[in-house]
Amino acid sequence: MASANRAAGIDAVLFDWDGTLMDTWLLVEASYRYALGAIGRAYDRPLTWYVTRRLGEVFGDDADGRRGQELYRSYYLEHSPEMARPFPGLDTALRRLRTRGVRVGIVTNKERRRLDAELDRSGFAPWVDFVVTTEETLARKPEADPLVWATVRYGLGPAVYVGDSPVDLTAGRLAGMKPVAVGWSRFDRSLLERRRPWRWAPTPEDVVKVLDDPAADADPGSPSQPPVSVYVTVGGRTRPGVLLGRVPERVRGWDRQEPTWVGGDGPAGLAVRMWTVLGGSGWVPPDRGMPRPDVAVLREPEDGKWNADRELAAWQQLWAGTGTVAAFEPTRSTVAEMLDRLDERDGLGLCLDTARLARTEYDVADAVAAAGEYVTVLRIRDANGLAPGWGPLDWDRIQRAWRGLPQLRALVLDCAWRPNFAAAWDRAARWIPGAGDQPGG
Question: Are 93 and 123 in contact (CB under 8 A)?
């Protein structure tokens, strides 16, 4: 929809449904309590946990679990007319967006039949241009897929995504949209702040106001980023899993100490552990004196399979109070999957590898920004595994993304093969802090 009144630079505003446009919290809680009780299971977690999980994750996929899922859906549909209510003031906000020439969409993890029934009763339908529900993509939020699909299917330009949960803010950033957090969310504000929303909208009216200065996209990260140590690996000659190698003597001016693996008194205060497979085996450098949990603790007692959540809990217990951040590198899992597991685990962070991000994410810079303050180490190399500038990645955008990361402790520059180090350095140095310190002869 073209219009002279369209907010500068913004083509569409997309909304989450549950908790953002529609107040379904009491209905969701009642549905879970009913269905779990009917199959003899306890409702024993915070509601904010249940609303960010698939039904299959809550109930399981055995016969009782499948029955529980159907009981949940039937109870929800039966009681939705009297329990689900639109949040006040949002009908006016949607109408004002449309009158300004901005397209309005809904992108939700909700099933189509439940969404359609509530949308018809909400009064929002006249102001909504399109809807994307969970059936339309293989992956759902917090992955970017539903928002990317909306962008492609409906030909969207720059867009804002408005939501009430960490899931929404992560999906918005991963999709390259501007995520807006609503003030009527039931999620703890500190948890939302960790996902670095572009804007806050305390009231429905503020959703419209955020469009008035879309170009003023100030870095949402900490304005005073702590010092960042820089390490260099050359030629992949460090043993597998040891990402922070000794800085080559050819580089003048860099700190040549090895990174610390135990305690927090070293140049980076880090422990880096390879995350080989989410839910699978990991590898820990054996020669660093790094405390490790007993392997038996990390496996399910019933079948001996590796359990990702049990492993993270064991690592958190080991490193609690040491002043050291244990940084996990997702090598096959996505950023969204790891953020979901690290949300409530202090002392654990992410080591992101930009080459791997190029294979698992839609956009590397958006993925770095989405990971936000969870990022403690960033391994910088191009999509082909060579040094920055030797491949297709947009390093100006990636640098802008990492500059605002408040917990970033170390950059690891991978300069590919040793014979090519000087040339690799020449291309990479422009994106590295203190790049005036050039390699010696």
Answer: no
